[in-house]
Amino acid sequence: MKLGPELLKLLAKVYEPSAMVETHFHRYDLAIKTDEAGRPILLFIGKKDPNGKIRGTRFTRRMLANNEGMVIKDHWDNKGNV
Q1: Is the dihedral of CA 82, 56, 81, 45 positive or negative?
Q2: Is the Cβ–Cβ distance between 78 and 1 less than 8 Å?
């Protein structure tokens, strides 16, 4: 599974800091974990099971910033099924 431009646009937003945000995207359920600045760093995408856990794919965000805090590299890695 690849992250398309629409989903990447959703993941570019800033959310509540240090929180787990649950939302929907088309036919998928999403759980987004944010860092201290509110940027998404962990994504679970799939369908919720009866216990409320998402069964699908896990993605992690890799960000590299310079000394001034400007982001140099920013990409999402597919970490497999959950």
Answers
A1: negative
A2: yes
